[in-house]
Amino acid sequence: MRNNLKNFKKMKIKRNITQILTIISFLYVFPCSVYAETTSESNPSHDRKRIQFYVSPFMFSKPRINILYGLTNNLYLGISLRNGEKSNTSENLNQNSNNSVQYFENTKTRFDDLFALKTQYFFLGNFYSNLDLGFLTGYKEENRKFTIFLNNSEVVPYSKTTTSSDRYLFSLGLGYRKEFFDHILLGTEINYGILSASKINHHYTFIPQYYNGLPSDYIFDQIYTDKSDYGTRKYFYISLYAGIAI
């Protein structure tokens, strides 16, 4: 009974999301431009500045910077940017035994920078439909280990390089934005989108003769490391934003 109730709720949520996406898509395909332009002309308060700049803060990630240009009073095109995670390097030195030490070095490039093309169409007063197309940058991570034997000064190297491809995103949404005192922007936006999978590759470098076969680190990775790609996922968020209009 409980499983049937859960399945029913999931089907209801999916049906509601499908209806919302259908309405948004309809607004893009049939934007009712004649009605929107007539509304704008009859109501001067809907005349908008051509250049609009605003920042969208998020609770669990860095804020987005949005820059839009009005091709018409109702149609805006622009870009959305967000800084990702900075590159980092770490080092560590451990004594492995009485006659050897291990030196570890980890480097990871900058990743998760966001770049998206943004389209907004005001279909009713200050309400607009929104479409984003963009990507999140991948990364390259290198893990190096050197085992140094003190009795004969021999160095045994081992390295693992992991690369992640860029992830592409697509989202549709609805928003409301208004200009106050001619230049102050305040608005809110609801978005539902899809983030594509990321391809993960691992590359190992070592000399088998030093290990009499395969290194224990390599064997451990083959058994326990998740080799699946970062899968495609859906996301939903609501944001409040503020900015300026010129």
What distance lies between the first and last C-alpha atoms, to the nearest angstrom? Answer: 58 Å
Task: Trace the largest sheet across and list its strands.
Answer: 1-2-3-6-7-10-11-13
Q: What shape does the CA trace take? A: elongated
**Category from helices, strands and their pairing:** alpha+beta
The poorly predicted ranges are 1-6, 26-44
Specify Rg, calculated over alpha carbons. Answer: 26 Å
What's this entry about, in short?
The chain is of the alpha+beta class and 246 residues long. The protein contains 4 helices and 13 strands.
Could you characterize the architecture of this molecule?
- The chain is of the alpha+beta class.
- The strands form two sheets. An eight-stranded antiparallel β-barrel has the order 1-2-3-6-7-10-11-13. A five-stranded antiparallel beta sheet has the order 4-5-8-9-12, with no helix packed on it.
- The radius of gyration is 26 Å and the shape is elongated.
- The N terminus is likely disordered.
